[in-house]
Specification:
Bound molecules: flavin-adenine dinucleotide
Low-confidence stretches: none
Helix content: 25-40%
Largest sheet: 6 strands, mixed
Order of helices and strands: EHEHHHEHEEHEHHEHEHEEEEEEEHHHHH
Number of strands: 15
Structural class: alpha/beta
Length: 447
């Protein structure tokens, strides 16, 4: 190994941004030790906790990440929050290169008058409940029968799928049984989706629009404010997909979904609870007052939301399509770099760019690496014991699979503490067999 080959690389965050970057660095530097830290005991970030339960095929990308963690010198260190369990400076002192991939995801909130009323929800709270995000006391918000969804991007369409699907659509998924049952005990009947933009410039992927058409028992209407220009092939495709939805005539209609494009909500009215949504703009012929008992905002993410880091004062984390370098030896990738936009494949492309940049910085001598700084084994013993390893995670994973409700692939643990208890149980058994081994993962329990 020469001086221009790093020995120890740390990636903070095990979502797609972190995993793809680590994978690309591993491909180039086969001898380097790579440790991926995550504040949670479970790896894979929003793949596990954001992607909708009825999209299990999307979650399958984790299988390729699993293979990395099973190879030598590629380590998962869950249950370690950088910034609170260990400082970034401490971490940097024992790793040649640190890549921050801590993501950022907090819903942008509605700001129209009346947004404070009961019945106004953010899509993130629903996604969190359905995905069993490990926060104690995370109930499924109460959703009524007349729902207005504000936004028409992919997360808004995730909401529409969720609001219109039935229990049988979740067979072989990992949806939270309680959250789903709570909603399906009284599902929505009328759903109005409001988009400020016309169809041509709305954010939804065409495939996501088409997918809605496969849900039986749902009737759709579509109002649009202006048509796509003839050379806007994507806009035209999206318009065609919505026209196909509007042409569906279900045998029996369980729910009606109205898409209104070019509609701007100006006020939510109600005494304590939502009663209606008022529009300041609407396409010709559309009503400007929509009776509703629930409003779900899905209007994108707050770009300034810091996520779970505590070192934000030191660096400029404004979204950037430029270099991932924050300074020599310190880089960023994923949503932390680009802002909260783009699906999983966009993170792959971006991670390859960042990895290339790191490799060029090191190999050109622009950012040289020195003597072996020690890496994971140079961290305090208490922190190493606290870390949930990949084999610990496999134990958690197996327990979730074993606990699966009928026709589910797993039932996720509800809290971080339960996951750590499972690891603790495993370790206690190991140390009973070998009394020299005393380890504890419970020294920090994340909320
Ligand atoms: C509701 C929703 C649905 C989505 N659905 C899809 C979909 O169907 N298909 C698709 O392709 N894309 C989807 N996406 C987009 C996709 O999830 C993102 O592109 C991707 O997850 C971003 O990756 P990331 O690694 O930057 O961030 P994340 O996935 O958020 O990963 C960040 C990781 O960092 C960890 N972390 C944070 N702070 C710290 C810290 N201080 N110390 C240690 N670890 C830390 C977190 O625990 C997390 O595991 C969806 C996104 C959302 C929000």
């Amino acid at each position: 190994m020469n001086a221009q080959t790093p020995r120890r690389i740390a990636v903070i965050g095990s979502g797609p941004g972190g995993c793809f970057t680590a994978q690309a660095l591993r491909r180039h530097w086969k001898d380097a030790e790579i440790t991926i830290f995550d504040r949670l005991a479970a790896p894979y970030g929003l793949i596990r906790y954001g992607v909708a339960a009825d999209h299990q095929h999307t979650k399958a990308v984790t299988r390729q990440f699993d293979r990395n963690f099973l190879s030598d010198d590629f380590r998962f260190a869950g249950n370690v929050e950088v910034g609170s369990d260990i400082s970034l400076a401490e971490l940097r002192s024992v790793f040649d290169i640190v890549v921050l991939a801590t993501g950022r995801w907090r819903d942008r909130a509605l700001t129209v008058p009346g947004s404070h009323l009961d019945g106004v929800l953010v899509s993130g709270d629903i996604v969190n409940a359905l995905n069993t995000v490990p926060r104690p006391n995370l109930p499924m918000p109460s959703i009524g029968e007349r729902v207005v969804v504000v936004g028409a991007g992919n997360v808004a369409l995730d909401m529409v799928r969720f609001l219109t699907k039935t229990a049988s659509d979740y067979v072989d998924s990992d949806v939270s049984p309680e959250a789903l049952a709570s909603y399906l005990s009284r599902p929505a009947r009328e759903i109005t989706v409001l988009s400020r933009s016309p169809i041509a410039s709305a954010k939804a992927d065409v495939a996501m629009v088409r997918e809605l058409g496969k849900i039986p028992g749902v009737a759709f209407t579509v109002a649009n404010s202006s048509s796509a220009a003839e050379d806007n092939s994507l806009g035209l495709k999206r318009e065609a997909a919505f026209a196909d939805l509007a042409a569906i005539e279900p045998d029996e209609t369980r729910a009606v979904v109205r898409f209104v494009f070019g509609a701007t909500p100006s006020r939510i009215r109600g005494t304590d609870h939502v009663e209606s949504v008022h529009l300041s703009e609407a396409p010709a012929g559309e009503t400007s007052v929509i009776p509703a008992d629930t409003v779900i905002s899905a209007i994108g993410f707050d770009v300034n939301a810091p996520g779970h880091w505590h070192y934000a004062e030191e660096y400029d984390f404004a979204p950037s399509d430029g270099p991932g370098r924050l300074e020599c030896g310190l880089y960023r990738a994923g949503w932390l770099k680009r802002g909260p936009v783009g699906a999983i494949p966009a993170n792959r492309a971006d991670a390859h760019q960042v990895a290339k940049e790191i490799i060029a910085d090191v190999e050109s001598g622009r950012c040289p690496v020195g003597d072996d700084p020690g890496g994971f084994l140079a961290l305090p013993e208490s922190l190493r014991c606290q870390a949930v390893s990949f084999s610990d995670w496999q134990h958690i994973d197996a327990a979730e699979v074993a606990n699966a409700e009928p026709s589910r692939i797993r039932t996720k643990f509800k809290t971080h503490a339960e996951m750590l208890d499972t690891v603790e149980g495993l370790r206690t058994n190991v140390s009973a067999a070998n009394p020299q081994t005393i380890v504890s993962s419970r020294s920090m329990v994340k909320g």
